[in-house]
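Table S5 (text form). Sequence records supplied for joint modeling of the two-component complex.
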Amino acid sequence: MNNSLIIVLWAGLTLLSVLTLIFIYLFIKKTISNRYEMRKKKLLEDYHKSDSVLERYLRTGHMERRMVLGSAVEYEAMQEYFVKRIQVVNEEEHQRIQLFFQQHLVDHYRKRLSSRRYNQRISSLLYIERFNLRELLPDLENLLSKKIGDVEKYAVLRVMAGLQSERIIEIMMDPTQNLPDYVCRQLLYPLNMNLMERFIAGFDQCPPSLQDNLLDILRIRNERSLAFLQMLELLVNSEREELRIRAIKALASFGYASKQGLQRIEESLDHWDAKSWQEKLMLTKLMGSIKSGPFLEKLQELISDRSFMIRSEAAASILLYKDGVQILRKIEASHEDRFAQDIAKEMLKRGIS
Amino acid sequence: MSMANLSNKSDSSTSYVILVAGCSHDIAGVLSTVFSNNGWETHTAIEAEQVGKVYFETKPDCVVLGSLWHETEDWIDIRDYAHSESVPIIFIDDSNSSEYRIRGFNFGANDVLGMPLIPEEVAVRVQRQLEIRTRFQEATLIDTLFGVYKRKYFFIEAERQLGDLRRTRDPFTVVVFELDRFRELNETYGYKEGIRAIRDLGRFINGRIRNTDVLIHAEDEKFILILPRTYTANAVPLIQRLQQEFSAELADAVNGTYSRSFSAGLLEVVDSDWKPGNCLDMAVKALEKAKAEGSNATHVFSLAQDQEQGWRRKLNVAVIDDDELIRNLLESRLQDLGGQQLDLNVKCFVDGEDFFGNAWHKQPGQFLVLLDRNMPRMNGMEVLRKLRLHYDRSRYLVMMLTVVNTEASISQAIESGADDYMTKPFSLIELESRIMRLIKGKRR
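The corresponding structure-token record, covering 797 residues in total, follows.
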């Protein structure tokens, strides 16, 4: 009886001391973190002052000794401050911020990239991209070679694309990478035209999904270069329909075709019946953007097409021609097909305000 | 007079119209023969009421009045109309009495012919009166009957406004308006009511416009209003408000009151190369459309819809860019811009020296310069500065189209006088709408 009482007592005491220890641990941890936050807040407040050491640096470009960072809290506060501040800077200040990060924070991020903690790696990616730390590209490539999950891999690739890494070309052209479409687009979008031209030059070696996305991104970015134009003009006759459609769409947005390119499309006008309505639709759009006599004739034929979409697009394209209004008026008044008359009427109503 | 040739009507008509009024049949016969031998159109009327009607239908250049008149209200009205339009009145004195002649001159005669009527003398005396009238007509700009400017003043004022447009690029609006159902009104209430309605409309409008606006009596029931520096978008509500107020003001008639209304055609003059006659024709076309819609209507002339050959807006477009692809692209794309509203003369230059070295850039007319920034020989900023320093600013619109996209360089270009700035790569649709906005001016 006594024994069991003692056991219970001991057990109770042990539990109490464990709990007390946990409480003390948590209390200390909270105090430290509070002090950390307080310190950070104080630092941020200081930085925000118009004559703070950072603001003076942004104005003059003169780095004071006080700017050299020591503690973790200083790193964090400064990086937080600059991430916000970089959104409202002029060009000169932007360069100064970048210079500062390149000089003082590269090692800091390098350490964090090789950290074993996922959070640290991911959060440093944000700053590496934001402050354009190209010095860290080898570290990023290194990180890729390690065993990391897809989410982290795509994040690293995005940063590499943002930093205009040439390695990205190899990676993207590698069919075994199997990058999803959305990643492909995210990677292509920030790439400068020099890198894009490399894709254009090696277009045939690109995986099909990269080909499609490349055309879309170049179109969305309104890029216009001779190499791109020549490629588009060839792709209009590509074997793969999806590629043809995207090339035609891109060419329509480009708004221009060389004499030979134009001739090639004009010659294809007679073989249209075999084409899908999607391709026909894009070609109809193209003929409104790039204008020629045979195109206008074809459009007048297409305005009585079976598909409403094509009739409508044909009417819209005709309207873009110099005497488009008159042609549509004529169709409205005297075309033998009632559907053609209707669409001409509607387009005239919509087109002229 | 049909509406369409309002602009072609000549002020000094070569063939005169003579109204022979209040004469006995034999005298009227003699006079008609004399006048028609001289190639003048002759109308005859006897009773005062009929005389008034014929007067307003035929608009005579001279009234020859026999002895059948009296100092009654109807005849006094006719005399007043004639005087207000400086139409001479020649009396025929068939009694050959000085008393009658004095009575005639007191009533307002410009000349009196005695008996017997000698054809050559009649002809020469009427001719003399007609000449005086013509000279007087040419010298005056005010329509005394209605107290506003005469039709020919439109051409003077329109020229002035076109000159202003050339300098400031601010368009002005021409409104042509006329009383609705004027013929019906004349037939129902008599010509006097008709005249009163025109006068009321003139006064009504004159009392409600800005003092920079100009009201002109075109002919009969038709007026022209010039609104300087006014877009039609702003003029339409004004005209519609006036229409509402005017039709709300009831006019008295013998058997109660009735309401009158007017219809208007508006034209926004945007091209300083147009001629006043063109402007008037276009505004009249708009008025015809308004009339077709019914009474109390307005219609705005729109180039896209009421297109006629020769009325297209001309614009010279220079593309200055060292990139051949961009030059070819813009040259082929811009040709069709604006459909039938615009007649674009596009020419490409590889750099500033090429542009200034070519006499093309000095031809008359308006220019739009699409300017690249980085070019080998004379770069975009140099071209811009030279254009702004040595050329008429309002004639050369400049739009920068360049890869240089730093804020400092954009603000530098805008400060140096660029009208717009677009960075490459550019969207064609955005570029085209920016160009259209530049061409159309500040309206939108």
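Note: Residues 148-300 of chain B form a domain with the Alpha-Beta Plaits fold (CATH 3.30.70.270).
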